[in-house]
Amino acid sequence: MNGLSNRKLLFxxxxxxxxxxxxxxxxxATFLTNREYTQPYRAPxxxxxxxxxxxxxxxxxxxxxxxxxxxxxxxxxxxxxxxxGSRVAIWAVAQxxxxxxxxxxxxxxxxxxxxxxxxxxGDKRYDRLAYEFTKLLSVSFSLTATFxxxxxxxxxxxxxxxxxxxxxxFSPTFLPYVGLFFAEAFFLYTYYYGWGKFHPLVHLxxxxxxxxxxxxxxxxxxxxxxxxxxxNGISDAGALISVWEAIYNFTWxxxxxxxxxxxxxFGGSVAAAxxxxxxxxxxxxxxxxxxxxxxYIGNFVAIIAFxxxxxxxxxxxxxxxxxxxxxxxxxMGGAFSWLFIIQAVLIGNLFLGANYYLWLGMGRVKGAQPVxxxxxxxxxxxxxxxxxxxxxxxxxATVAEIRSMGGSSHPILGFLGVMSAKNTAVNILxxxxxxxxxxxxxxxxxATVAWAKTGHTAQLLIFAxxxxxxxxxxxxxxxxxxxxxxxxSVPQVxxxxxxxxAITAIDYFLYRRPKMTADVRWGHMPAISQYVLIFIxxxxxxxxxxxxxxxxxxxxxxxxxxxxRDTSPDAFTPTLGFATQVVSVTVLAFFLLIGxxxxxxxxxxxxxxxxxxxxxxxxxx
Amino acid sequence: MTIPHSVRIAGLVLVxxxxxxxxxxxxxxxxxxxxxxxxxxxxMTTADxxxxxxxxxxxxxxxxxxxxxxxxxALRFPDLEGVATRASTxxxxxxxxxxxxxxxxxxxxFIVAGFNPGxxxxxxxxxxxxxxxxxxxxAFLQTLGGTPTVTLQTSHxxxxxxxxxxxxxxxxxxxxxxxxxxxxxxxVTR
Lengths: 621, 190
Fold this sequence. Notes:
Shape of chain A: globular
Number of helices of chain A: 25
Number of strands of chain B: 4
Low-confidence stretches of chain A: none
CATH topology of chain B: Cytochrome Bc1 Complex, Chain D, domain 2
Number of strands of chain A: 4
Number of helices of chain B: 6
Order of helices and strands of chain B: HEHHHHHEEE
Strand order of the largest sheet of chain A: 1-2
Structural class of chain A: mainly alpha
Largest sheet of chain B: 2 strands, antiparallel
Helix content of chain A: over 70%
Structural class of chain B: mainly alpha
Shape of chain B: elongated
Radius of gyration of chain B: 24 Å
Low-confidence stretches of chain B: 176-190
Radius of gyration of chain A: 31 Å
Oligomer: heterodimer
Distance between the termini of chain B: 64 Å
Number of domains of chain B: 1
CATH class of chain B: Mainly Alpha
Mean pLDDT of chain B: 83
Strand content of chain B: 5-15%
């Protein structure tokens, strides 16, 4: 009844308001046209100018103008940012830009893959899932561009000399960058708004175009930042000799590869966090099932991309050492060595979180108990590897403690703090997590092929051989000289990669047509599993912030290593405590903004306002 | 009372971030300052040069980032204990000053068995020690198993001080007499 009265009132109020406004305009117009224009009164100039204050101001103005005219133009090297300083301001904005850019580049990679699976299998659920991921892109793309523009302006304002130098080297790359950016906007919005409007293959081609263009943009930007770390293609004095060599510097390709993989891992984890957010808010079993599945896929993408990431990291570190041993040793043995202990805590938590989620996920399938008995062994292996990886080489100790230990390294634990032990730990961690995936994959399934027993035995043998080989090389590393020891990480990594590929290949054929002993009950997950997904996303984000800091901070008091020296007040390398505070604040800002993105994406699912307001009874029921 | 999921999520993000921030406070906190400006006096004695050379090796030269003095075991780069003795005998006919100079200006010339090449060229950026600073480093290295003899007027194959005599053929360095043409003070960084 009230709604009806309100509508009548609105109906009457509209014309009345219009009449009142028309009358008001008429009155104002009449008033203005009936008045003749007259000059406003101004005090005679002579009276104003004779006051001592005005004369003093005029003298000051004239003197300032004369000084400005006499001063030659000097290009500023630096300008200061208020309160937090230029470095922290640039740091935070660059980090936020990179986090959103990573997300925007990563999501289309797996969205297109999922869409392609949907097209190939004809299963519409995949198409819906891919669209759900893509919904997150539009606002994120705008935020990426906004932070990118802010970063560019801030570099020009705060570090003009350095920015000028970078422009002198990389100006040929700027126009292609802008062109590609336009192309990315075209592909992204056509891909998003054209969902279901084109032939599936055309739509997939748009998605592939989006990925190609996005990756090319990242490669160009990577050339700029890697040049700062390992400059190439320039003379000793910094003059440009070859743009291509400046682009293709020592660390360019390792960073390209590392970032593509890391972006996918990060993007997968944030998308999984979105699914967790939606799962926790879901009101129906259908919604819970869908978002459970989405979270699982996001996490699967994140962890699968995460497994080869340490190997890409080795390559990057190797290239850093190849470029400059000093730079490499500053990273691993100098000011930044303790940062890798923090990194170990983060990666250890990621592995623990990912495995825990998988173990919880076994509960989705009835009859998972035979597999779950292995979980405790996997947990023990992960815990041991985590502890080894997080063991520092040297220990913070008092003088008396150092004397009693015979040095800053613990007589026993100190042996676990070296690369031989850490490389072994991370390789075993990767193998263990891979085993968790394998066990999860098998829950509720029985292999039916005739050679099932042989296949299982072969898989076990490969796994055990790889683990023993990795541990053997780890121990062997203690008894050989440095030049041999450094090379041992390659066979360790190769053994793990071989084991993963070989076991997956066998598993594919073993379980191609399995006997299903139970169905997967999507949505049957405890709420804590969803919080684990959010924890993983926060940890990934924090890890990206930390590693971004080490990559950039490694240059220490150089803008461009060995070429353009940082002479600003921020030229010092801050403490790790300070760096982690900046990373934490940036991560919180990112999650605040990504929360906004999630909320906007959720609006898409809400009914229109008209529908909601016209059915108040439905709302209340 | 049930806490809404959105509040729990916000709490989890906050606590996780704070935890990692806290871990960052547990590790040693060291602020690394860029090398500061200092001055090498033209009348420095060899003893002064040894002192400055030692400081350069720890600071601007970054030598001790890779090398050690008096350590053994699985080292990444050669230990420098007794290096003056080895430098004077490793290449027949080459003095330890020439050996050190070549190791610093052209480091890939001598690779100690069991180690990989990796020493940067010391007189070029990012380290960029000056010729006088390198003489100071050589003076310090001479103390590790030998007796320092270098002065700021010492010549070697890579450097001849202003007004000094070039290094003698065969690698024997010369100690030129100080002349008035040598600048009184040369600003360098350390």
